[in-house]
Amino acid sequence: MNHALGTLSLLLHGCFSYPKLRKIHLAHHNAHHHAHPRAHHDDPDMPTSTTGPFLIMRWFATMATTYATPCQALCFAVHITICVYVLQVPLFHVMLFIVGPFVMSVVRLFFFLTYLPHNAHACETPCRAAHKRGTQSTTEQGHIKSFVGPKWFALWSSFFAVYHAQHHWWPWLPWWQLGHVATVHC
């Protein structure tokens, strides 16, 4: 059931391939569980270099080329063309209700689920500061961090996926339960 819903949701959202995304996501988890946490060379979500100018742009380009394909772009273009020319949906509405949300979700998911949690130099969080002081913190796995802040923001930013370290520690938990785990273990 999960695989069927995932396939349908991703296909409708942006012509994504569920089997491909699942394979990449599992490779991402394996890179962090079987290698040194900072040895990101096996992680498909990481750029080849994590230093230097324009890091966020290179990182986004790495993610885009890993997850998106020319076939997907063509499928999305056909979808938009059908909406505009066959169904006669005004272009403004297509941009507002299809293209806009797609672009916003891609940027939001990249920023909150990849860049901030996996960038060792990104924002400092209270749990990260506690970890540096030597106190126990389960919000990091190697350099993977989790968001600490209001639950409404965690819901808005990525449906609780900002609790990224908890997701790596307990990958079988549904996203909506990660906030509770973060509260209990931080």
Can you characterise this structure?
With 186 residues, the chain is an all-alpha fold. It folds into two domains: 122 residues, no CATH class; 63 residues, no CATH class. 63% of the residues lie in helices and 0% in strands. The protein contains nine helices and no strands. The longest helix has 28 residues. It is globular, with a radius of gyration of 18 Å. About 13% of the residues have low confidence.
Number of domains: 2
Rounded to the nearest angstrom, the radius of gyration is 18 Å
Instruction: Report the total helices.
Output: 9
Number-wise, the strands total 0
Query: How does the helix and strand content classify structurally?
Result: mainly alpha
Fraction in helix: 55-70%
Mean pLDDT: 76
**What portion of residues belong to β-strands?**
under 5%
Give the end-to-end Cα distance, rounded to a whole number of Å: 33 Å
Low-confidence stretches: 34-39, 124-141
General shape: globular
Query: What does the main sheet amount to?
Result: none
SSE pattern: HHHHHHHHH
Features:
186 residues; mainly alpha; 9 helices; globular
Could you provide a short overview of the structure?
With 186 residues, the protein is mainly α.
